[in-house]
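Sat 14:20. Reprocessing the chain from the morning session after the first attempt stalled halfway. Input below, unchanged.
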Amino acid sequence: MLALAAAGLWVWPGLCAAQARAAPPARTVLVVGDSLSAEYGLRRGSGWVALLEQRLARDKIRATVINASISGDTTSGGRSRLPALLVQHKPAVVIIELGGNDALRGLPLEMTRDNLLTMTTAAQQAGARVLLLGMQVPPNYGADYAQRFSALFAAVARERKAALVPFFLKGVADQADPTALFQADRIHPREEAQPVMLATVLPALLPLLRP
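Finished this time. Tokens:
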């Protein structure tokens, strides 16, 4: 500042501090999911959540991404873990990517819906915006079950006025060859599918990161 004054360029003492205060703080995005978000079978740092963090940094969006996903988790597991995560991280946005394992285990649809509703409500009451990532099940589950399972995500989003991605694996699981972008287990997407999954999430997520 003294050098600037000597050169005839006066700087008010509080200016730098005011500019620093004007910079918005980094917002926290908390992802609560299962193996689809936990990089199951993938190189570390190649999953869609890691790609999200890289994308936000590249676009100069001040956000910290916390991946609290656990392989094999269900909506019941997410419901029990969420309160502590909300206290610890104080997220601005919570992405809920759960429900697929409920269907694989044949758990009651009403229980899945209730868990998602409780998680969404808790996150909102903690001051976070919520994005639900909807899932679908293969046709062999039966048309009625598949329709009711898919619809429960929209029902929760509508009731709580939360954001929704209707089908998280759009562009991955609905290709002409539905196995092309999956690992050998035909359940977990390959590394090549991760940018597609991120591209599905981003349009719904970015508006939630705006003040």
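The radius of gyration is 21 Å.
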